[in-house]
Amino acid sequence: MGKASTPSIDPPQLKISVSKLFRVPGNVPARTLPPDGERGGMFAYQQINAAIATPGAFVHQPLLQREPLFEVEPPQQVVVVPGVVDNSAAIRRGKPRQSCLGLGSNCRCGSFVSKSKKQKDGAQAKKPGEADKVITQNRRARHNYEILDTLECGLQLVGSEVKSLRNGKVSLDEAYGRVKAGEVYLMGCDIAEYTEANQFNHDPRRPRKLLLHKREITKFANLALEKGLTLVPLKMYFKSGRAKVLMGIGRGKKTYDKRESLKKADSQRQIQRAMRQR
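The line above is the sequence of SsrA-binding protein (Small protein B); the predicted structure tokens follow.
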């Protein structure tokens, strides 16, 4: 008996959809799978015309232009749809992965699509009701100074300093701000060494640059030149995973002012104690 002949099966064809990322009509390469038994072989590429549904869209030029390795179906008109077929290793396994464009998902359809801005911003966005994680506060600052204004500043830190901050090993008791060469620095802030850093550890009391806009630096510089005004850190905290310090612009209190502050604080505590006993 002769060997039964296997019927020829046309290879399936996968089309890459055109998303709203495209701006100018053009050609988009469509991939087709190799015939049965040649899964490890090269893909055949066929140029197809893309129908652009959105005016002013952009189309990448074809990355690959090759002659078909076997017979493929004639070019067809492709219409913009919200989904796109993944062209990664799943196609070689015969199981194309369906991803979605425009919904903020991680689409792996090649170099055409990147993460949406909404997703990038969402990674650092604070959850509703989530408060800043306070690392330490300078309680002596409000006792010794009359705070006139405050400003939130970023901090230029190294990795071992961030690790120590997360462990709460920092003191602001002797810290102050200084304007130098058009920049503002935090002086006297003691961030303990991180034990796991070994020889890559930091200097615990080194000057640390505050990250400010130019107009904020100018404001600090002008106020620092006024007689009796000082830049003092009030507290240090983490905000959306980044270390921040709240700087205050204060005027030093006289001895009698400090006594008045202590009297007010004492009377306030007595009032609160009496309210709790009711």
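Note on the example: The chain has two domains: 11-115, 133-271. The longest helix spans residues 255-277.
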